[in-house]
């Protein structure tokens, strides 16, 4: 079993992952925050793009599950000597790895790698494609904050689309180039939330009619109706010419400052997958405010990624109890 896209997740898997996440949050509070679930297994992070939190949290998750971890970095590898991606993956396969956590600038790479290896492949971001594990972190963060307690008494597998029902989420900014947005639109909608995309017309995809979302180009028009403002980073590395007039113009129209936060209301929350650009997507005051869940997202990244690894290990029949 691989995790390439949010489409790979069934209702039962979301539930299992939320349950396991709670268990691993408890494990993280122990003096020795380690369990033997993946003893004897090896995980390799294979990153062809830079990363701070995704790589560190996957490697921490693997260690807390007692797996061994290897770290492959494109810039320091034999790729610079001309080795192909195919041969790199074959090499890792021959060394013997059980999980390959892959990040690449080209959409579709994780799925291609999955055809070349025996290991379970986890997509840690493929260009403008998807980023399903970030999405699960964001869902777990929202479920812990907003899910309704009465759901516990119902047949849980039939109620996954009610977990976040009624919740209004605006995804703001560079939707066009964002793999996080692509995964989150699907996952938030699967859990019953209503998603509105907000941003400059040049950064909202053309084929949007087929997506289960509303679109608004004016943040001030919708902000007071929202429960969650999910900010995206401008993915400058994915486009050649400027698609917004200027950074100043962008932050004036779509950036979150204290005046806009006030209009969101005291129960509204702010999210961002990181890395944040203070002064562009949001001001420092907003980023550090009590309404910001940005560090909660990072805190949840280890237990959620532990949950993902434990679930996949179980599905491929390899985990220890
Ligand atoms: C995101 C990514 O790399 O896709 N970051 C992350 O994984 N936390 C978002 C981004 O780089 O803007």
Pick out its properties.
four-stranded parallel β-sheet, five-stranded parallel β-sheet, alpha/beta, 9 strands, Rossmann fold, binds N-carbamoyl-L-aspartate, 321 residues
Would you give the CATH topology of the largest domain? Rossmann fold
**How many domains in all?**
2
Distance between the termini: 19 Å
Number of β-strand runs? 9
Itemize the secondary structure elements and their pairings:
Layout: H1 11-28, E1 42-47, H2 53-64, E2 68-73, H3 85-95, E3 99-104, H4 109-114, E4 120-126, H5 132-146, E5 168-172, H6 179-190, E6 194-198, E7 214-216, H7 219-222, E8 228-231, H8 247-254, H9 258-264, E9 269-271, H10 284-287, H11 294-315
Parallel strand pairs: 1-2, 1-3, 3-4, 5-6, 5-8, 6-7, 8-9
Helix pairs in contact: 1-11, 2-11, 5-6, 5-11
The structure holds N-carbamoyl-L-aspartate.
N-carbamoyl-L-aspartate binds next to helix 2 and helix 6.
Written description of the protein model:
With 321 residues, the protein is an alpha/beta fold. It folds into 2 domains: 6-130 and 300-315, 3-Layer(aba) Sandwich (Rossmann fold), CATH 3.40.50; 132-297, 3-Layer(aba) Sandwich (Rossmann fold). It has helices at residues 11-28, 53-64, 85-95, 109-114, 132-146, 179-190, 219-222, 247-254, 258-264, 284-287, 294-315, and strands spanning 42-47, 68-73, 99-104, 120-126, 168-172, 194-198, 214-216, 228-231, 269-271. The protein is globular. 44% of the residues are buried. The mean pLDDT is 92.
């Amino acid at each position: 079993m691989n995790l390439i896209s949010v489409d790979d997740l069934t209702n039962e898997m979301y539930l299992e992952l939320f349950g396991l996440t709670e268990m691993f949050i408890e494990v993280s509070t122990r003096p020795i925050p380690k369990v033997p679930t993946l003893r004897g297994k090896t995980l390799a992070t294979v990153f062809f793009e830079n990363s701070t939190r995704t790589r560190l949290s996957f490697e921490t998750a693997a260690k807390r599950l007692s797996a061994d971890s290897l770290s492959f970095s494109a810039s320091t590898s034999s790729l610079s000597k001309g080795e192909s991606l195919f041969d790199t993956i074959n090499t890792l396969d021959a060394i013997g790895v059980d999980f390959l956590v892959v990040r690449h600038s080209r959409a579709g790479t994780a799925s291609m790698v999955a055809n070349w290896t025996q290991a379970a492949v986890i997509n840690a971001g493929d260009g403008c494609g998807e980023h399903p594990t970030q999405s699960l972190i964001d869902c777990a963060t929202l479920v812990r904050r907003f899910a309704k307690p009465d759901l516990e008494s119902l047949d849980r597998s039939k109620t996954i689309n009610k977990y976040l029902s009624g919740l209004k989420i605006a995804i703001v900014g560079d939707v066009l180039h964002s793999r996080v947005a692509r995964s989150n639109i699907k996952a938030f909608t699967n859990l019953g939330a209503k998603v509105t995309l907000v941003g400059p017309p040049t950064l909202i995809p053309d084929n949007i009619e087929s997506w289960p979302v509303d679109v608004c180009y004016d943040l001030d028009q919708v902000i007071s109706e929202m429960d969650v403002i999910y900010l995206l980073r401008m993915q400058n590395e994915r486009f050649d010419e400027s698609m917004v007039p200027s950074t100043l113009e962008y932050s004036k129209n779509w950036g979150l400052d204290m005046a806009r936060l006030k209009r969101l209301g005291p129960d509204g929350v702010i999210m961002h997958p990181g890395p944040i650009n203070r002064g562009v997507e949001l001001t420092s005051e907003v980023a550090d405010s009590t309404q910001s869940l940005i560090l909660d997202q990072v805190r949840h990244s280890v237990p959620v990624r532990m949950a993902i690894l434990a679930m996949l290990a179980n599905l491929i029949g390899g985990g220890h109890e």
